[in-house]
Amino acid sequence: MSIKGWCPGAWRPMMSGDGLIVRIRPRLARLTRDQILGLCTLSQSHGNGIIDLTSRANLQMRGIKEHDHQTVLTQLQSLDLIDATPEAEAKRNIVTIPLWQDGDLTTRLHTAILDTLPKMPTLPAKMGIAIDTGPQPILTNTSADFRFERSADTLVLRADGAPNGKAITEAEAPQTLLDLAKWFVSTNGPASGRMAKHLKSTPLPADWQDTSPAAAAPPLQPGGTTYGAPFGSIDATALAALINDSQATTLRVTPWRLFILENATPCAPHGFITDANDPLLHTHACPGAPACAAATVDTRQLARQMATPGLHVSGCDKGCAHPRRATTTLVGRDGTFDLVENGHPWDAPRATGLTAKDLLTPAS
Ligand code: SF4
Prior knowledge:
Blueprint: E1 3-4, E2 14-16, E3 19-24, E4 30-32, H1 33-46, E5 50-53, E6 59-64, H2 69-78, H3 86-91, E7 94-96, H4 105-116, E8 123-124, E9 129-131, E10 146-150, E11 155-159, E12 166-168, H5 173-186, H6 195-199, E13 226-228, E14 233-235, H7 236-246, E15 250-253, E16 258-262, E17 284-285, H8 300-305, E18 311-314, E19 326-333, E20 336-343, E21 351-354, H9 356-360
Parallel strand pairs: 1-8, 7-9, 9-10, 17-18, 18-19
Antiparallel strand pairs: 2-3, 3-6, 4-15, 5-6, 5-14, 10-11, 11-12, 13-16, 15-16, 19-20, 20-21
Helix pairs in contact: 1-7, 4-5
Bound molecules: iron/sulfur cluster (SF4).
The site of iron/sulfur cluster has 12 residues, from loops.
């Protein structure tokens, strides 16, 4: 897929308030013990010691100094964690279910799609592919534009935004993906940027929506050797300790701020979420100040103190941590917070100029 514009990765990192953000796209969302321990070491030695889980099941290190970028790239290459070129990295925007098995449909499709990517037409940078081919879809709320799913008895390729998809065989999957991408381009889809947005103004032909996928299943929850990371941020030292203590052989990344350790002894580590009812699991907060230059407020301390499902504390109105509607959104502006109820960070606030003390003081 040739990409218009720019999308952050390891080769093309993004500058933030505390240095470069280097994003890694682990193949099939899985890392060996050596890879994850190597990443922890890199984060400690060249970054700010934090590893983020992203909403597309990628990993990112923050706080990398510009002059250290080449060293980090060399280390990532030796860990086999990056693509051969920036172009190859930008094209590989694929999210898979985390619990695939060697040789199953998900892994076979992944291989076939990797081979197809060079033939894809030019698409907007944020467009991606979901291989959601367990018994029921679980990536329905994970960002993607081309969705491989299963119906009761067949494989389906579904355009994001359409309720139904096209029934296909496994052998037809690569060509059908190409055909749908070409339809998107030929109908001026790139002007919309994403498939779902495009379908709001351009009807999808009927033969692309003849089959219902199976009903979506809920995502995974923490428990056993599946751990949650508050706000999707992991302390690299704590993660390395957990890998060593649990004797895990591999780590799988999920899009839900959770990671799964394989062949591991369950532990109760400090700093990770182990309870599905922990409100931190569903409280959103971007890094805020001082990590991001756009922020004038500390976000995560307040989010921890106020943790409740449906709360989003955002350093500014860009809303990186949750660019969607939330029950309560606190938006940093000039050192205080604006309050948005049942809206997006960029929506009109109901109250402005609130301090953390205002927000933490119970109303009398
Ligand atoms: S929402 Fe604003 S402050 Fe937070 S990370 Fe994004 S740009 Fe930075």
